[in-house]
Structure to design on (132 residues):
């Protein structure tokens, strides 16, 4: 095991391979256009999922965790021609159990950010994340 892997409770090379596959998957680009765009970022301490939810109110956005998956559900209120909002959902499947990590979220100016701590434990159960 190399020093880079020793710093984290999950396999770094597996995470890098997963991120490469996620961004090269043609379905990801299709879903970005069909529902809402998702970007992934990695810092030294966190994995960050960013969702572009222009036209959504914070009260209409939910984030749920189940095993190794993050579910983002939203209702877009501002649609052209006065059409009512349609619910949409994206699922991000990670190469580790996200329920075992500390997860927080923030919503501002139509952008949802979900922060998954690499080295801080969570409760280990499926749950909804509060967006303050």
């Amino acid at each position: 095991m190399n020093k880079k892997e020793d710093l984290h409770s999950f396999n770094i090379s597996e995470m890098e391979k997963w991120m490469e596959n996620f961004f090269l998957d043609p379905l990801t680009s299709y879903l970005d256009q069909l529902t809402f765009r998702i970007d992934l970022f990695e810092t030294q301490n966190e994995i960050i999922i960013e969702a572009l939810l222009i036209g959504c109110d914070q009260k209409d956005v939910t984030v749920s965790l189940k095993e190794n998956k993050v579910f983002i559900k939203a209702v877009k209120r501002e649609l052209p021609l006065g059409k009512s909002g349609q619910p949409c959902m994206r699922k991000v499947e990670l190469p580790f159990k996200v329920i075992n990590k500390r997860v927080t979220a923030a919503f501002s100016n139509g952008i949802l950010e979900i922060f998954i701590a690499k080295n801080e434990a969570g409760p280990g159960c499926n749950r909804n994340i509060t967006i303050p």
The longest helix spans residues 12-24. Strands lie at 38-42, 46-52, 56-66, 69-76, 87-93, 101-108, 111-121, 127-129. The CA atoms of residues 76 and 119 lie 34 Å apart.
